[in-house]
Amino acid sequence: MTRFNRCYHTPGVIKKVATICLFLFINLLIFSQNHQNTERKQLFDNNWKFFLGDTIAASQKEFNDAVWRSLDLPHDWSIEGEILPKNPTKGAGGYFPAGIGWYRKTITVPQAWQGKKISIYFEGVYMNSKVFINGKSLGVHPYGYTSFCYDLTPYLNFGKENVIAVRVDNSKHLNSRWYSGSGIYRHVWLQVTNPVHVAQWGTTITTPSVSVKKATVLVKTLVKNETASAQKIIVKTTLWNKNFKNSGNGQVQIVLQANSEKEIAQTINVSNPQLWTPETPNLYQAQIQVLKDENILDGTKTNFGIRSLKFSIENGFELNGKTVKLNGGCVHHENGCLGSAAFDRAEERKLNCSRKLVLMLCAPRINPPSEAFLDACDRLGLLVMDESFDCWKIGKNTNDYSVYFNQWWERDLQAMVLRDRNHPSILCGA
User: Which pLDDT score is estimated for 364?
Assistant: First the structure.
């Protein structure tokens, strides 16, 4: 005990603890300063009602779901079912059942949120989802692997109960060459922002120039003004390294016209950068604040890595100027006996197993994966080929993505690129 106390109170340890506390305090300020106590991105996984089957009336607010099953997300109803030869998923889907299911959740929206922008964000629903709020249709999303978002603001009853209903249709088969699972199998989030805010997937971070002595970080921020008047604002960016030390700052003042958006570019130089490699997966964080009259209107945080990528005939793939030989792996989204439910810990465990199998650098190829999967790749130093679709216009199964390609490819591809572009683990898309 004496040795522990002597070590713990050394100046170096005390300084590090103080630095970490300062970093956490700054994080807290972004979301709480000036009485802005509402968390910007709130996990929306708990206390859903579920029914396996189809009943159109479930979209209506007044529908009685008292006898429905209560559960938390992520959820895959296929893995819970009986394995039977007659099930339409056939061998590739493990002969698990599919079908149609409904999810409902009742929430009371605080009166204090009136005047804010409120949206619901789904990381992934397999497949053919239809989302309703208080009986109003928000839209449809066929593809099971891309994320999507709906604005709830115009339809909410503030200070009262509101009902969100989701119909999931995985009845049309065959639609996959592997086990897909069924349901809201990834996280759902509620997003609450000021009308002047950073747009969904509105941060782009690149590193145009990289060396061991100096790196250039280009941060582009898309800011939206969803008010009826022009807003004079400041967009402030701070870069933090893995040791919670300030690595660079940028600040731009602009006038954003009413009901408009604008992308703000800031170039920040970082001295002696800690480069991201599979052996040393060093991560930085960009903290962006939107300020008006010294008040924080919005704040976001984005992890990124400082590294350079290059492909050439002469040297193949180069990471930070060095040729890298890769071992590839086709890693699908399911998690064994958990089915397709994307629990964060299961996603990371899967990657650890993948890396042990190849014993060297691994480049998983996967349909747009969960955010937890890519976050784990960033931390663990695995390189990723982010794959958009299994097929284009010509299908491989009767009801696969080729059915939706002509109408949806552009939106789904855009969703994948915008969501995933800041992950240092991604070396290319397909």
Answer: 61
Residue whose entry in the numeric block shows the structure tokens 């309703």: 132
Q: Give me the domain span that covers residue 239.
A: 197-304
Residue 29: its pLDDT value, please? 45
Q: Which two tokens stand for residue 107?
A: 């929430």
Question: Long-range contact list for 356-364, CB < 8 A, 24+ apart?
Answer: 357/329, 358/327, 358/329, 360/325, 360/327, 361/278, 361/324, 361/325, 361/326, 361/327, 362/326, 362/327, 362/328, 362/329, 363/326, 363/327, 363/328, 363/329, 363/427, 364/328, 364/329, 364/330, 364/331
For residues 402 and 172, what is the distance between their CA atoms, to the nearest angstrom?
13
CB atoms within 10 A of CB 30: 18
> 63 and 176: one domain?
yes
pLDDT at 22: 53
Yes or no: say if 189 and 120 are a contact pair by the CB < 8 Å rule: yes
How many domains does the chain contain in total? Answer: 3
| Residue where one domain finishes, among candidates 269, 304, 339 | 304
Q: Give the chain's residues under pLDDT 50.
A: 1-9, 13, 17, 26, 28-37, 359-360
- Residue 365, helix vs strand vs coil: strand
Last residue within a domain, chosen from 245, 274, 304: 304
Instruction: Confirm whether 13 is domain-assigned.
Output: no
Q: Are residues 227 and 348 in the same domain?
A: no
